[in-house]
Amino acid sequence: MPHLPIDQRHAWRTLASHAQTMRYRHLGDLFADEPARHLRYTRQAAGLTLDLSKQRWNGDTLALLLDLARDAGVPEAIQSLLGGERVNRSEDRPALHTALRLPVDTSLVVEGEDLVPAVHATLDQMATLVERFHAGQCRGATGKAIRHVVNLGVGGSDLGPLMVTHALSDYRPVGLHPVEVHFASTMDGSQLADHLARLNPETTLFVLSSKSFTTIDTLSNAHTARDWLMARLGNEEGVDAELVMRQHFIGVSASPEKMAEWGIAPQHQLECWDWVGGRYSLWGAIGLPIALVVGMECFHELLAGAHAMDTHFREAPLEDNLPVLLALAGVWNVNFLDIRAHSILPYDGRLEYFAAYLEQLEMESNGKSVTHDGREVGYSTCPVVWGQLGPNAQHAFYQLLHQGTQAVECDFIATLKRYDDVVEPGTRDHLMGQHRLALANCFAQSRLLMLGDDAIDSEGPRPGHKRYRGNQPSTTLLLDRLTPATLGALIALYEHKVFVQATLWDINPFDQWGVELGKTIAGETQRILESHAGLEAMDDSTRALIEAVWAAEAGDS
């Protein structure tokens, strides 16, 4: 007998009824009702502290949400994910990003194969390459040591490595041959053109990161990079095309055949696997740029932090499980309080790209409207996720958060300790003061979003344009310090949150057919643009846009 849709089950309907009373409760009243509210809704694991006390819920709400999680099979789903079962149902394969951070002395047998040896073989190959770079032994076609590495990738092959390398820039190893890492993802070539204008081809190497090795964005940049190298180095004595390809390119893909066909030397091919989605892939060979910036020791610490969160996710009871609780708060807001916007607000400049990373992780994973068995969902799934560094956002879109008509859930992210290791006392004191200033703003903003006008001492009535309604839910995430380990745990926390929400919504977070369809349509449109044929199949608007391009090109000729 088919199972009931999630929104028709008793647990969901009970929550919906409960929400009718909670919808009109103010967070200020909830805090007044529970003097120890912070303690009740705060949990810790893997160097992270998760404070959910500013969510618009009470003990009854959380108990009902936990009932919903059990009814939806969340405990069983967690074991299925981590055990290597085929949780990616539409593509009929496991989702094994957690296998990429398993310690070398463990084992994970999936369909008769232990995955750990292959994972660590790739990590060892990465370590060899990184050691050569940092020793100045990785040389270009003219014999000069490589100083610049440009990562060519898009989506998860760009956003994850970019975010982590920026976040962990404090951990650059000292005393080694300097290697600068750059990123180019845009198919229009604008980012790449900027790099090519500034870099020396003799000391520049390109990493082509594409799981399929067919991604048009990446390959278009790769062809441009190859032509640039050939044009600049091809006339050098003793330099031929084969030498340039061997010394200036590294490939990361699940398709060694396509890498070899493109010209990537076997010793410069790193393996990734089709059982890891792109947005979950920074833990393996796609993370080579991260290892080049921070070294393999720190890269292993990043993996260890994520694995610590994996272990917590597997072993902690639901009521103490950080990813589960974070997921339940999101479902409560989206499905029962009708809050469909979610802002990510780090108060640490090193996390500048974290919101962009989560935009892909959450919306590409859970931006779905069809259940596992093909039914159209009758409820909201993923909210619109966006964000910015909190101190910058305060001068941009916080106006909407405080006084706009759109309710928004916010995640505030901050680090407790920073700059205490700066050697010069005066500079250290100034920087630690700036860090306290950032923390003060972080805590003050979440308090104002919660309480509204009641957070402000006022001598009399306030005019309407100076009123704050408050009652905006938020979560505060504190890291003991921003280290490779705590960053790994933070990323894994959100990965698992996404999976729990997908389980509750009965959708597949590991495919992206909408993205694939967009690529197909773009390819068809490109062929029309280039061939000047097939325009009759287009709609009136697209036809006019294509004709505008042709007219512009004709005017240039």
3D structure, described in words:
By secondary structure, the chain is α/β, with parallel strands linked by helices. It folds into three domains: 6-71 and 316-457 and 464-505, Glucose-6-phosphate isomerase like protein, domain 1 (Rossmann fold); 97-298, Glucose-6-phosphate isomerase like protein, domain 1 (Rossmann fold, 3-Layer(aba) Sandwich); 514-556. It is built from 21 helices and 13 strands. It has helices at 10-22, 27-33, 37-40, 59-71, 74-83, 116-134, 156-167, 190-198, 216-233, 241-248, 256-262, 288-294, 296-315, 322-336, 354-366, 390-393, 398-403, 425-451, 484-505, 513-531, 540-556, and strands spanning 42-45, 48-51, 109-110, 113-114, 148-152, 180-184, 204-209, 249-253, 269-271, 341-346, 384-387, 409-415, 474-479. The strands form three sheets. A six-stranded mixed sheet has the order 1-2-13-12-10-11, sandwiched between helices. A five-stranded parallel sheet has the order 6-5-7-8-9, sandwiched between helices. It has a two-stranded antiparallel ribbon with strand order 3-4. The longest helix is centred in the last third of the chain and has 27 residues, at 425-451. The radius of gyration is 25 Å and the shape is globular.
Features:
five-stranded parallel sheet; 48% helix; 557 residues; six-stranded mixed sheet; Rossmann fold; alpha/beta; 3 domains
List the helices and strands and how they pair.
Elements: H1 10-22, H2 27-33, H3 37-40, E1 42-45, E2 48-51, H4 59-71, H5 74-83, E3 109-110, E4 113-114, H6 116-134, E5 148-152, H7 156-167, E6 180-184, H8 190-198, E7 204-209, H9 216-233, H10 241-248, E8 249-253, H11 256-262, E9 269-271, H12 288-294, H13 296-315, H14 322-336, E10 341-346, H15 354-366, E11 384-387, H16 390-393, H17 398-403, E12 409-415, H18 425-451, E13 474-479, H19 484-505, H20 513-531, H21 540-556
Parallel strand pairs: 5-6, 5-7, 7-8, 8-9, 10-11, 10-12, 12-13
Antiparallel strand pairs: 1-2, 2-13, 3-4
